[in-house]
Design goal:
This protein has 186 residues and is α/β, with parallel strands linked by helices. It starts with a strand and ends with a strand. The protein is built from 4 helices and 11 strands, in the order βββαββββαβαββαβ. β6 and β7 form a beta hairpin. The mean pLDDT is 83. The protein has a 4-stranded mixed β-sheet with strand order 3-2-1-4. The chain has a 3-stranded parallel β-sheet with strand order 5-8-9.
């Protein structure tokens, strides 16, 4: 089986330097070399067919977004795998490689559905068994529903509520699907 190699040339932005004539070598979906283009070219196996030529593009690390509700006409609160795939694909197209899907104020049942999907999509990124074309889900951002009336902001009144001890158990049992949480119970 022949390896898949791709080399991207351009201005490479690293944490502590910018390489004007840089290159990023990707083999089988993994970055294997980053540096000045002349050094990266020397590391490419002889049987590889790398990209050729210089480019003026800017190569930067992927963005990580810690608070995302949706994109491309879909919302995580739609609570369907299709909506999750749509949002994740949309954000990847714009340079975001990792996302924390964010809930909004909703019914207890809907919150649990979204948290379950956060768990499923987080597992896809970790296990890698099912590939999706989109940003990687890092775990959900539990945003509400516990907002005091003065702190509710733009959230719809029917679903924000004071903390409810009976609901804590099911939310906490989804802790493996969570990355962060926001509440303002007052």
């Amino acid at each position: 089986m022949r390896s898949s190699h791709d080399v991207h040339y351009g201005r490479v932005v690293l944490p502590y330097e910018v390489i004007d004539d840089g290159a990023v070598h990707v083999a089988n979906g993994r970055i294997v070399a980053v540096g000045p283009s002349h050094e990266v070219r020397r590391q490419i196996p002889g049987d590889a067919v790398p990209s050729s030529g210089a480019s003026t593009c800017l190569i930067v690390p992927g963005f990580v977004d810690l608070h995302v509700h949706g994109g491309d006409g879909a919302d995580f609160m739609d609570a369907t795998p299709a909506a999750f795939r749509t949002v994740l694909a949309c954000h990847l197209r714009h340079g975001t490689t990792s996302i924390v899907p964010t809930t909004t104020v909703a019914s207890h049942e809907l919150m649990l559905q979204v948290l379950d999907l956060c768990r499923q999509f987080k597992a896809i990124g970790i296990q890698g068994e099912e590939r999706i074309v989109g940003a990687r889900a890092l775990g959900g951002h539990f945003y509400g529903p516990y907002f005091h009336e003065e702190a509710v902001g733009c959230h719809p009144p029917p679903d924000f509520r004071p903390p409810n001890k009976a609901q804590h158990g099911p939310y906490l049992s989804n802790a493996d699907s969570l990355g962060t949480g926001t509440v303002a119970p007052g």
